[in-house]
Amino acid sequence: KKRNMKKSVIKGFGYYVPEKVVTNDDLAKLMSTNDEWITERTGIKQRHYRKNINDAEETTAYLGLQASKKAIESAGLTAKDIDYIVFATLSPDYYFPGCGVLLQEMLGCDTIGALDVRNQCSGFVYAMSVADAFIKVGQYKNILVVGAEIHSFGLDFTDRGRGVSVIFGDGAGAIVLSASEDDSVQGILATNMHSEGKYADELCTKFPGTKYGWSVRLKNEPDAIPDEEIYPHMNGNFVFKHAVTRFPETIHEALEKAGKKVEDLDLLIPHQANKRIAQYVQQQLGLPDEKVMVNIEKYGNTTAASIPIALSEAIEEGRMKRGDLVCLSAFGSGFTWGSVLFEY
């Protein structure tokens, strides 16, 4: 007898960004840049940072907590109804353990499993794909999927780092993915995940990895560690070229798997990496403006948080309605990329 596979549906959503808004003009006071240069290359006008760079309270897990509370409430559930957490971030509170367990404690959940996903810009897509698999086989009923980042603590606000530092912001987004047997809702139809590790060095932060003998070097010669190993490095043009190839590929793959066409899409929510990438992908797919969600001008690139923030805003703005066919798609460091196609 064939086992009846459950469907994964988005039951709740929420997002949270710190109050402090940092405009392009604010950044121009710290390094040689200007609003026109940043806007033209990235489409970003502002981003949010936590109040103090070294704030021990407004951490990544804390941002995740605020977004999660909203998601759980909008799902009509309580923390006790959540039976698994998947937390995607590249900026955890501690080197270890990850943010998942910190969130479990902050929310007051039972002693449920908490998984951390380290797939950077593709983190939320990977996290959702994992949660979907758990639900489909009947392992869990309500999974909290979170993407949260604090970039502001680890950016190089000098002329050397400006190409990267103007892009990133802090924020968090979350959804509750629930098992459903309701025939009127299709839920998640297709997912895919990919990687190409040979390009790891094109977009990375080396510190504090095990590859470079940090502990010995920090102890013996703390000033000898070059800034380029501590701060994020990005080969911008190289990343752009790969992103605009991989985005359409992974979106087509998801549509094909579900037996759908590009014309069937009601909304594409791409990772908010760069407005130019989103526009290029939109052009490749032949989608009109109203079918592509872009909010990078307000938040910058919030890595694992960008898709759930955009998804939450799309629902709030009425751009994503029940029954809509929606595709989430991401590309980033690793290189990793992937998509989730679902009926909301």
Jot down its keywords.
344 residues, 5-stranded mixed beta sheet, 4-stranded mixed beta sheet, 33% helix, alpha/beta, 12 helices
Structural commentary:
- The chain is α/β, with parallel strands linked by helices and 344 residues long.
- 33% of the residues lie in helices and 23% in strands.
- It contains twelve helices and 13 strands.
- A five-stranded mixed beta sheet has the order 1-7-6-4-5, sandwiched between helices.
- Helix 3 packs across helix 4 and helix 9 runs parallel beside helix 10.
- The model has no long low-confidence stretch (mean pLDDT 95).
Q: Strands, helices and their partners?
A:
Elements: E1 7-16, E2 20-23, H1 24-28, H2 35-42, E3 46-49, H3 60-74, E4 84-88, H4 99-107, E5 113-117, H5 123-136, E6 142-149, H6 162-165, E7 171-180, E8 187-195, E9 203-204, H7 214-220, H8 227-230, E10 233-234, H9 236-257, E11 267-270, H10 275-285, H11 296-299, H12 306-316, E12 325-332, E13 336-343
Parallel strand pairs: 4-5, 4-6, 11-12
Antiparallel strand pairs: 1-7, 2-3, 6-7, 8-13, 9-10, 12-13
Helix pairs in contact: 3-4, 9-10
